[in-house]
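Dear Dr. H.,

I hope your travels went smoothly. While you were away I took the liberty of generating a structure for the chain from your last submission, since the lab meeting agenda had it listed for discussion. I wanted you to have the full record in hand beforehand rather than looking at slides cold. The sequence, exactly as received, is reproduced here:
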Amino acid sequence: MKEIPSLTEVISKSPIKVIDGRFAIVKLNHKPSITNYFMITDDGEEITIVIEESQLGDAPYRDIQSWFKLFQAAVSIPFITIGFLAAVTQAIAQKRINVLVISTFSYDYLLIRENDARSAIEALKEIGFPIAKGV
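The corresponding predicted structure, in token form, is as follows:
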């Protein structure tokens, strides 16, 4: 059986990049007619989109939280690395920064308030994440 790498090893091989733009997380009454959102979820109780603020336009919404930067973590070994998200959120929390986490099949995304983005990047660097150039 193949040995599973340590959490430290996985972190060191899981690059973080910041997606261009400023994002909002929006609660909607109905599925949107717009299609330029980054992500949509419909859990049967509410519909939520993550969208670049400049793309929101006049879409009607029930609630909105804005001024987020969107970080993408490309997990080098998804699904088997115990404690990956705990390490990410703990490092950020130690800087007294709140984070919203969204996971997909291949990536983990972090929504962090724009004014906290630099401190969050430093927190992630401190625990060994490679940060994409230009960030």
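Two observations you may find useful: The longest strand covers residues 16-28. The chain has a mean pLDDT of 91.

With kind regards,
E. W.
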